[in-house]
Amino acid sequence: AGGMMCAIEAAKPGRTVLVLDHPAAPGEKIRISGGGRCNFTNLNVGAENFVSRNPHFAKSALARYTPQHFIELVRRHKIPYYEKKLGQLFCRESSKQIVAMLMAECEAGRVQVRSACSVEKVEKDGETFHVSTNQGEFESGNLVVATGGLSFAKVGATDLGYRIARQFGLKIIETRPSLVPLVFAGEAFRELAGVSVDSLVTANG
Fold first, then answer.
1. Which residues contact 163 (CB under 8 A, 6 or more apart)?
2. DSSP 8-state assignment for residue 134
3. Using one digit for the tens of pLDDT, what is the confidence trace for 43-71?
4. Is the dihedral of CA 40, 42, 47, 52 positive or negative?
């Protein structure tokens, strides 16, 4: 989602933008989010909801692009939605509508999206990035890496972003699990898919 939004905004000044996405279909993480209904924003989001060594970054980012901006985009595409609780907004029908919306915005901005395109190597020569993929070689003056986290390998989560960051000498804070899926074997829990409950969890040690 972050990569597609970045591509849409980057194309607005008339730039030529290419999205390389290794899953076979775009927006796989969007498709499974919110139990298949995509919790696409929160009315009450603020800088205080983010943990960062630079708290001013969240303030600046949220001032420039607010939840209302995205809600207006959803309304423009006539996607019905509802507030579940505590300001959480979900699609009333399917998360696939958000994927379709973002793809339509990419098409309107002449953003080219290549699916099933795996990045094999990234190099930089002067001011030009060289990206080697299973679909050929690409060059660009600017490169955005929007790979997400490591939490769900089944929808394409990898450590590519961390490897590229290390390659270019960027500082990385050690990763650790925070929000991860629970996976059960067998059919016993199938009917509970998509169900959420308020809970309090404590751990010793």
1. none
2. T
3. 998 898 888 888 899 999 999 999 999 99
4. negative
